[in-house]
Amino acid sequence: MRLLNLFILFLFVTISFSQEKWKSLIDEDLNNWEIKQGKAQFKLENGVIYAESILESPSTYLGTKKAYDDFILEFEVFVDTGLNSGVQFRSAINTSVPEHSRVFGYQFELDTNENRAWSGGIYDQSRKNFFLYPVTRNEKGRKSFKNGQWNKARIEAVGNSIRTWINGIQVTNLIDPLSSSGFIALQIHNISESKDVGKKVMWRNIKILTENLSEQRNKVEEYATEINNVDNQLSENQIINGWRFLWDGKTTKGWRGAKMSKFPEHGWEIKNNVLTVLSSNGKESENGGDIVTNKKFKNFELELDFKISEGANSGIKYFVDTYLNKGAGSSIGLEYQILDDKNHLDANKKFKVYEYSNKSWVLHKEDIKKNRSMGSLYDLIEAENLNEERSKRPVHPETWHRARIIVNEGHVEHWLDNIKLLEYNRFSQVFKALVEYSKYSKWENFGQLDSGHILLQDHGDRVSFKNIKIREF
Amino acid sequence: MRLLNLFILFLFVTISFSQEKWKSLIDEDLNNWEIKQGKAQFKLENGVIYAESILESPSTYLGTKKAYDDFILEFEVFVDTGLNSGVQFRSAINTSVPEHSRVFGYQFELDTNENRAWSGGIYDQSRKNFFLYPVTRNEKGRKSFKNGQWNKARIEAVGNSIRTWINGIQVTNLIDPLSSSGFIALQIHNISESKDVGKKVMWRNIKILTENLSEQRNKVEEYATEINNVDNQLSENQIINGWRFLWDGKTTKGWRGAKMSKFPEHGWEIKNNVLTVLSSNGKESENGGDIVTNKKFKNFELELDFKISEGANSGIKYFVDTYLNKGAGSSIGLEYQILDDKNHLDANKKFKVYEYSNKSWVLHKEDIKKNRSMGSLYDLIEAENLNEERSKRPVHPETWHRARIIVNEGHVEHWLDNIKLLEYNRFSQVFKALVEYSKYSKWENFGQLDSGHILLQDHGDRVSFKNIKIREF
User: Fold this and answer.
1) Which tens digits make up the pLDDT trace of B402-435?
2) What three-state secondary structure class fits B157?
3) ipTM of the predicted structure?
4) Cβ–Cβ of A430/B381 closer than 8 Å?
5) Of A349, A434, A441, Cβ closest to residue B434
6) pLDDT at B11 over 60
7) Contacts of B70 (CB under 8 A, 6+ apart)
8) Which of A436, A441, A444 best tests the B interface by mutation, with the highest count of B CBs <10 A?
9) 3-state SS class at A436
10) pLDDT classification of A278: cutoffs 50, 70, 90
11) What is the pLDDT of residue B390?
12) Which of these, A210, A211, A151, A171, lies nearest to A25 by C-alpha position?
């Protein structure tokens, strides 16, 4: 009994001690805050900060005057259903861009769309303009935010480790080096329809902790998949889970030309931990040629970052048999297509089919195939966006994007920037029926290999690769 | 206690009584048996009848001189691995056919091929020449026969109910009206390779029961799926499981023209419980036109028997929307193709694909598609034989065959004569990708309906249908 009393006392002291360090960001007025952008009004009433949607304004941000680097932030928020909102952190102002997009930086997403349900995810506002952590790989996290009520939120930003919680459920676990410091800001999103005028977002109990952070961090939950955006570095968690680099960032070790026993002597460049296939004006495998891993892979998860040049065509192939096509052109395998959809005709390929009937060739159909677009299973399955209703996010030239391929026996998935694009079973009858219609019908047992090489394609266009990593299972 | 004693006594008396009625078919010699066909030698030694494979002989049968109608037969059998054998029952001799195929009738299959493993199945020897009960819908039954050992077999033939067991596991449950009486015969199969010369089949403890059969029958196991081959009649088991006739065999009730509000006035014939689409020289939907069920179906199992004329083309469509194609041609839906593969060009359709590249049309591929063959999902998935390695059994003109379609939400299966031909998920991404390549790409959301009509196609060729039945779930 005495020991228990002592323990309760200890708990009490510990809690009191740590609570002393929390600092409220809401005083009697909003003097510590300022409008960073936009025309909407923020008001403080009975400890609640609120704002209403207005037409004809960009998103409006009420931000702290002070900048914060490492911190743990907690707040409660109520978002009227139909609105989108967010809380910026480590954010800043970029005066060189149009006024409506000057506030940039990490955004803790507030998403009342129940189909997507990415609240707590991390959006890179007005910089990369995409989700650094869309909540696509954490189903439990997706269900943490409740519409029509107050929700408790928590952001931990310590070094490059950013983690978020909603109502006690961990939503994200991001390692990202983009911003180390900046203001915190409450967003009231711009709206385009008058039906949304007057809809409200409310915040209360906003408090921050800036000292002794490491001992105040929450336990990390396994269901909140970690996403690591740091170059040339595996996280502790990745090492534990069997990830390793498939390319060392410096040498040609582990790779060879697809049709040679060693690495091509020209056509490929290694510089600053980036591997680049050089341009030869779009010729397929005529310059350096494709490169493949020496090793063959069976069940694996492959992740790499790639950057295209304008109009570029390339690809990542898997289950490649380098003995199959000894002639001209690329080696044969399943291909995660890399393409500049906007500037390459392959993204909308016109084709015509004739059938032989009554002793003559009759036009059967004329159509456009989209199964050669970015992220598609080349010539077979068109990349979609399986995680939200909107069309898939475009890949822009000269920006880095992340490809991910998962193979588990027959089951295969293609991902782009943490969005699932497609999935199929390569052993299914319907997959084999699809192959019969495609350009691959001439290769017997296409896609059916037990194991195969991984290939990076030389399609004669400049494309760069980095952070090529893999784990096998 | 007294009651238990009484019960044990009762059991003892019952067992003794029934065992008295079993009659051995093996005496001191083989005087009750005779060779019905073939040149192999059967010998009797220590109660074991055995024979060895020889070259240059048709299958040899040692049969009972006596004919049996209703009976329960039990025997033990040992088959050298690599051989195929069987036990004929209710069999007879047809002297009007070549000598090697004169013995015809039901055969209890003995199959040492472990990939197929259809021992205990019922083959219709030298008559229909296919399995009336292939062991494709009873996985437990498939595993009952053991190679390299003696196996205990049991056949119950009572009226049109035929059931078999191996080592206590029920293998078949067939209702079939083809033969009601005939001899029992042991088969030593013909062989074609000298490596099989001298391989043995042995039988022992062959005994038969011919009286009080109904009280001696084994309990029916649910895992041994019942197959009913009786025309215009649902079995008790089928009624319990929700089967009903989708066509009453006599009137046009429940059906209408696909593009009309009533049944076509010509082009279709109803006679002797058979529904026939008449010939109009191969024109698609220009005579009577397709017919559809008035009702729409969502999740169902459909079974019907069909008979083609030479060179015929027809089909069973499901998830049909009769509002979709109001113009010429057939209504739109997923189609179980009915075709005379041997005599219709559609079974091996030549096609060419051109792609638009560098401002001109370039020949991309020239190929043959087999996805319009018998049982295929028309223009999409080629029918295979998923239950054994051999190619699918041909459908012959003027013979009855059974089609079966199962739909459970996205999952669909096509069966022919109790052999699974194909399966797919109509909601999968890869199925939609396949549709994009097919002639159906112009119909939005093809195959995605929540429910639809069932259609019998008028493709201008004479094709008959009977026993059209369905159960919904």
Assistant:
1) 999 999 999 999 999 999 999 999 999 999 999 9
2) strand
3) 0.86
4) yes
5) A434
6) no
7) B157, B158, B159, B210, B213
8) A436
9) helix
10) very high
11) 63
12) A210
> For every residue of B123-147, which 3-state class applies, written as one string?
EEECCCCCEEECCCCCHHHHCCCCC
CB A436 within 8 A of CB A414: no
> Tokens 């013979």 correspond to what residue?
B399
Q: How far apart are CA B164 and CA B162, in angstroms?
A: 7
- As a whole number of angstroms, the distance between CA A441 and CA A434 comes to 9
Question: What is the C-alpha separation between A147 and A164, in angstroms, rounded?
Answer: 18
* DSSP reduced 3-state for A105: strand
- Mutation target to probe the A interface, by most A beta carbons within 10 A, among B362, B421, B429 is B429
Provide, for chain B, the percentages of residues in helix, strand and coil under a 3-state DSSP scheme, each rounded to the nearest 5: 10, 40, 45
Chain A residues within an 8 Å CB radius of B337: none
- Residue A458 tokens, joined: 């030389």
Q: How confident is the model at residue B329 (pLDDT cuts 50, 70, 90)?
A: confident
Query: Which residues have CB under 8 Å from A129's CB, separation 6+?
Result: none
pLDDT score at B328: 80
Let me know: does B420 contact B412? Beta carbons within 8 Å: no
Output the pLDDT for position A248. Answer: 97
DSSP A225-270: -EEE--TT---HHHHHTT-EESS-SSS-TTEEETTSSS--SSSEEE
Residue B389 has pLDDT above 90, yes or no: no
> Which residue carries 């998830």 as its tokens?
B319
CA distance B85 to B88: 10
Whether A205 shows a pLDDT value over 80: the answer reads yes
Q: Helices A429-437 and B429-437: crossing angle, nearest 10°?
A: 30
Measured from the Cβ of residue A81, the count of other Cβ atoms closer than 10 Å reads 10
What residue of A is the nearest CA neighbor of B353?
A: A353
**SS3 (DSSP) at B28:** coil
Strands B200-209 and B23-24, sheet pairing: antiparallel
| Mean pLDDT calculated for residue range B14-22 | 61
C-alpha to C-alpha distance for A238 and A225, rounded to whole angstroms: 11
Angle at B167 between CA B163 and CA B169, to 5 degrees: 50
State the pairing for strand pair A200-209/A23-24: antiparallel
Rg (CA), chain B: 26
Closest residue of chain B to A383, computed from CA coordinates: B429
N-terminal to C-terminal alpha carbon distance within chain B: 48
Report CA dihedral (B94, B98, B103, B107) to the nearest 10 degrees. -120
- Whether A198 contacts A53, CB under 8 Å: yes
Query: Which residues of A are less than 8 Å from B345 in CB distance?
Result: 356-357
Where in the sequence of chain A do the CATH 2.60.120.560 domains occur?
A: 21-228, 241-472
Distance CA B333, CA A416 (A): 34
Contact across the interface for B365 and A441, Cβ inside 8 Å: yes
The CATH code for residues A21-228 is 2.60.120.560
Token pair for residue B83? Answer: 């051989």
Tens-digit pLDDT profile for residues B119-161: 999 999 999 999 999 999 999 999 999 999 999 999 999 999 9
Residue A118 carries which side chain, given as an amino acid letter? W
**What are the b/e assignments for A424-461, b being 16+ CB within 10 Å?**
bebebbbbbbbbbbbbbbebeebbebeebbbbbbbbbb
The reply to whether B362 touches chain A by the CB within 8 Å rule is: no
What CA–CA distance (Å, rounded) separates A243 from A470? 5
* Residues B180, B71: Cα–Cα separation, whole Å: 11
Q: Is pLDDT above 70 for B42?
A: yes
Give the burial string for A123-132 (b: 16+ CB within 10 Å, else e).
Answer: bbbbbeeebb
List the Cα angle A103/A105/A107 in 5-degree steps: 100
Look at domain B241-472 and name its CATH class. mainly beta
